[in-house]
Write a structure and sequence with these properties.
CATH superfamily of the largest domain: Nucleic acid-binding proteins
Number of domains: 3
Structural class: mainly beta
Order of helices and strands: EEEEEHEEEEEEEEEEEHEE
Distance between the termini: 78 Å
Number of helices: 2
Radius of gyration: 24 Å
Oligomer: single chain
Largest sheet: 5 strands, mixed, barrel
CATH class of the largest domain: Mainly Beta
């Protein structure tokens, strides 16, 4: 085993060194980035036999368990949770200073049945393209209480999967209402009392042609939002 500040490549560890960080190939399909400082000391050794128990402990640290949990039960959960819900609010990505580093933060709100919970997505998770009305599955979230109430926070292991489904339907459209806090987004009421999200510019031509509701339209739905809409002749 050798000790030192050297960043010279070692034959014993597969790693790529760049300014301010070192990436260790921990196993064949995964790398983790560790931020280093001037005082950081690295220890390297040759190949070692690892017991099955120790390997399981390492996997638990690198890939912690995250249980699929109903949104209403997240507050009582003690561990990491995975949730699947509809996105009902999306803020603009902002930059926040954390421990002298500037990191991106995206605040969203998700809803499942009657339960609505704010979610703070940090770093890489904040760069995910998320739109209101889509269904998402977000893993490895940790609950926290603050002066603003309960919320879920992303962790380094968080993964986000956007559940998109496309369908073409012919429906009766009754009218729209504004979505509070999101200019340009409307909620369209359909004849069967269900609702879908639609952008104001897409609804404008339909509203101009509608004399009395309902008006029959053909819509292409992605998730819970209308992508295309046209009057059905």
């Amino acid at each position: 085993m050798s000790l030192g500040n050297s960043s010279e490549p070692s034959q014993d560890v597969d790693r790529t060194v760049g300014p301010g960080e070192i990436c260790l190939c921990l196993h064949q399909n995964s790398t983790k980035s560790l931020v280093t400082e001037r005082e950081t000391i690295w220890a390297f050794s040759g190949a070692k036999d690892v017991s099955e128990d120790l390997q399981k402990q390492a996997e638990a640290l690198l890939c912690p368990r995250s249980t699929l949990t109903p949104l209403r039960a997240c507050r009582e959960s003690l561990g990491l949770v995975t949730v699947e819900a509809e996105v009902v609010e999306v803020s603009a990505v902002k930059k926040v200073v954390v421990a002298r580093d500037t990191v991106p933060l995206l605040n969203i709100a998700i809803k499942q049945e009657e339960t609505k919970v704010p979610v703070c997505l940090w770093r890489e998770a904040a760069l995910t393209d998320i739109a209101i009305g889509t269904r998402v599955q977000i893993s490895h979230l940790r609950g926290s209480d603050s002066a603003y109430g309960f919320r879920l926070q992303s962790t380094i292991s968080t993964k986000i999967e956007v559940r998109t489904s496309t369908a073409v339907r012919v429906v009766g459209a009754m009218g729209v209402v504004d979505v509070e806090g999101t200019p340009g987004l409307l909620q369209l009421l359909l004849e069967d009392d269900s609702t879908l999200y639609i952008r104001e510019e897409k609804w404008g031509p339909i509203e101009a042609a509608m004399k009395t509701p309902p008006i029959t339209v053909r819509i292409t739905v992605v998730g819970d939002s209308i992508d295309l809409i046209a009057i059905e002749e």
